[in-house]
Amino acid sequence: MAIVVLFILHFTNGNTDKKSSENVVENVSESIGSRLPLAFVRTDSLLNNYKFFIDMNNALMKKAEDNNLIISQRAEKFRKESQEFVEKAQRNLFVSQERQKQEENRLIGVQQDLENYAAKVDREWNQERMRMNLQLQDTIVSALKQFNTPKKYEFILGNSGTENILYADDSYDITKEVIEYLNARYVPSKK
Q: Facing residues of 155 across strands?
């Protein structure tokens, strides 16, 4: 806009001096405003301090720990049964070759079941994590729409380290305000 004004002034008045063009630029800058209608949120700080995310993440980590414990217990049981099988086979303690083969097949089935269970648990955990991320994103976007009503930012950007924004003046950082707003809205669910 300033360039257009300067262009017009330059060609409409060939004798325009440097001072008058600087005044025009200052006037255009004042009319636009000294601050741009944008802000950014440090997403890593947001996630570290947003109670909803902390609670959801803790629940997800608890579920992962519980799943790992169950898988470890099953794996330990399988390891012991396999070890007993090997010892029995080495000592020829099976009644028959057929009985040994049946036990071997049973252990192969147990191992397959364990692997299938671990894969199922992993898939379910990943689906839960994806659902949580979508819910988190929906919650934040919805809250930011309400948060922005009186602020009238044209853009609210997310920033994680230097991933999206390489430099921004700290006066555009609204992370603290957004965290306070989100946490004030959050009501933990009772289990």
A: 38
8-state DSSP, 140 = H
Residue 38: beta bridge partners?
155
CA 77, 80, 85, 88 torsion-angle sign? negative
Handedness of CA 74, 76, 81, 86 (dihedral sign): positive
Alpha-carbon distance of 36 to 154, in angstroms, equals 9
- Tokens 């147990």 belong to 110
- Measure the CA angle with vertex 99, ends 97 and 100; round to 5°: 65
In angstroms, rounded to a whole number, what is the distance separating the alpha carbons of residues 97 and 78? 21
pLDDT tens figures, 98-157:
999 999 999 999 999 999 999 999 999 999 999 999 999 999 999 999 999 887 788 888
Task: Check if the beta carbon of residue 40 is closer than 8 Å to that of residue 173.
Answer: yes
Structure tokens at 160: 């994680």
DSSP state of 188: P
Single pTM value for the model: 0.69
Instruction: Identify the three-state secondary structure at position 43.
Output: helix
